[in-house]
Every structure is written in structure tokens, then in C-alpha cells.
Amino acid sequence: MIAQWLPRIWSSRNGFSQALRPLSWLFCGLVILRRLLYRLRILPSRRLAVPVIVVGNLTVGGTGKTPLVIALARLLREHGYRPGIVSRGYGGLARSWPQQVRPDSDPVMVGDEPILIARQTGCPMAVGPDRAEAGAALLRHHDCDILLCDDGLQHYGLQRDLEVLVIDGERRFGNGFCLPAGPLREPVRRRQTVDFILCNGASAYSGELPMRYRIGDLVNLADPARRAPLSEWQGQAVHGVAGIGHPPRFFAMLERAGLQVIRHPFADHHAYQAADLDFGDDLPVVMTEKDAVKCQRHARENFWYLPIEAQLPAGFAPHFLNRIEAIHGQKPA
């Protein structure tokens, strides 16, 4: 599976990645030119009626953006703001965009992550390839005074007031090459222009703030009232299922808790069929909460998901809220 071997190629400057470097230079050049055209206003960029916070990354694959967006939305609500959220809705098959997202929306239509975000935050949300149009549609339907954009760092068609970069602490920037020779969507120096840098896992470097996950109890997919502390499953053999940007992180999390994991990685945003989850035995199947959104229709009594929450770095909240207040112009009522 390409999703499994590409990260290995991108982790070092090997012969294969070196052979692709000319294409990487071309990609980097086009990225830099595109950003310049937006800065010169040759390409159109839209400013919305409320401040916009973008949460994104520089690399292909998961870094923990979605849990961070959820944590930031909750923080803003706790301090009196009325946040709305926009994202791409990747994997959604709706025929028209943008789409408003509700907790009970169909993941086939709007994607899996938006539904997870809507359920976890209770915030109004809209998705669409054009983040600016999705944000404008959201503001037409809801009384929001600030917008969070999930995975929009390279979406320069939407003007932003604050940028939060999330880095995978283990993989970092891979071999440092842009696509296709490496995992970078933009050159590493782009990190110098963002407002906050959070490092998810491992040790944070200078200028970065550490972000960790808080693990909840396992939740049964067929009967959400059934819960089980992960600590009670030590030594238990389970099938681990993950269709996220970096499945090994989820499997390693389970293994650190003492579970014996039979790993079943899937591509990010995989459209699960019942056969994908039939492993020929009665062992528990443990998946991410994002996967659970799509696997609900296939739920069995031995299906469980593991909720996680992003823990904001110590001292981050006051600094972040001060920046928001300065951008917003006043404290929320």
C-alpha cells in the first residue's frame, strides 16, 4: 500500500528521494510563486467579516490538527466567544458545496473529521473545497464571531489573522524535501512566518510548544453506554484499526498501554466496508474515534473506539487568548 511505504521513503535522503529532487524543486518553486501571487493580490483572497484562525501543517499526513481544533474551539467557547469551524470535508461525496455539518450528518456526504468535530465541540460547521466560501456560508446561517479553519495553512484564498502550525514530533519534516521527493507541502522556512508552533509528541524544539494527548475510556460502538478503562485491557490481544494520517501513532499508543495489537492500517479517510472489519475471530476491534464515525453502520458488540483529547501546553491559553482579544478588538460579552 502506497500510504505505508511512502513515509519510509520520505524519512531519509535515499536514492529514490534523491532521484525525485528535480520534481521537488519544481514543486517548491510553484508553491513559492503561488504564495507570492496571493501576497501581490494577483490571485484573489477573501477576507471574512470575523477573525480567522488557521490550524495546519507543512507535511502530508496526520499531525494532530483535528484534536487541536477541537481543543481550541472549546477554549474559545469557555471564554465567551462564538466560534464556527470550516474545513475541506475531504472524502465527502456531496454534489454541491459548501455543506453545513451537524453531529448527525452523513460522513459519506461531508467526510468523517467534520462530524467528529461537530460532535465534540457543539459548534456550527461548514465544509467545502473553497474554505472562504464555506466560511461565508457558515456566517450567513450562524451568529459566529470567530472562525477556526481546520487544515487550511496552504489555502491562501482565505485570509487569516492567526496561524497555528502543528508538527509531528516523531517524524518532524522527514527528509526535508518538498513533494514528491519528501513530505513537505511548503519549504520548512514557512514555519518562521506562523504565530504558534505546537509539537505533537516527542520533544519540542526551540520556539515550539509541546502538545500531548489525554486518553479516555474505551467506548463500545454498538452500545456507547458501555465503557472500559484502557488499563483493564493490559495483555489483551486486539485488532487495531486506523484509517488516519499516521496509523502507527495510534497502534503505538495502544501498545504502550499494554495491549497486544494486531495492526490493520488503512488509508486516511478510508471508506469502510463490513468486510474490512471481519478478521475471522471474536477478538475486540479497537479503532480511532474518527474511524468510528464511518464504522457505526457496521457496529458489532466487540467493536470499540478510543477517544483522545489534545492537551494544550502550559501557559498557551493566556497567550493565545490575548492574541485573539487584540485581533478581535474587544473581549467577548
Write structural notes for this entry.
By secondary structure, this protein is of the alpha/beta class. The strands form 2 sheets. A 9-stranded mixed β-sheet has the order 3-4-2-5-1-6-7-8-15, sandwiched between helices. It is 31% helix and 21% strand. It folds into 2 domains: 41-211 and 312-328, 3-Layer(aba) Sandwich (Rossmann fold), CATH 3.40.50.300; 217-306. A hairpin with a 6-residue loop joins strand 9 and strand 10 (227-228). The model has no long low-confidence stretch (mean pLDDT 93). It is built from 10 helices and 15 strands. 39% of the residues are buried.
Write a brief structural summary.
The chain is of the alpha/beta class and 333 residues long. It is built from ten helices and 15 strands. Strand 11, helix 8 (247-256) and strand 12 form a beta-alpha-beta unit.
Give the topology:
Elements lengths: L1 H9 L4 H5 L1 H19 L12 E5 L8 H14 L4 E5 L11 E3 L5 H4 L1 H10 L3 E3 L3 H11 L4 E5 L11 E7 L27 E5 L8 E7 L2 E3 L6 E2 L8 E6 L4 H10 L3 E6 L19 E4 H7 L7 E4 L1 E4 L4 H13 L5
Parallel strand pairs: 1-5, 1-6, 2-4, 2-5, 6-7, 7-8, 11-12, 11-13, 13-14
Antiparallel strand pairs: 3-4, 8-15, 9-10, 9-14
Helix pairs in contact: 4-6, 6-9
N-end to C-end Cα span = 52 Å
Determine and state the CATH class of the largest domain.
Answer: Alpha Beta
Structural classification: alpha/beta
Helix content: 25-40%
Q: How would you name the CATH homologous superfamily of the largest domain?
A: P-loop containing nucleotide triphosphate hydrolases
CATH architecture of the largest domain: 3-Layer(aba) Sandwich
* Number of E strands: 15
Average pLDDT score? 93
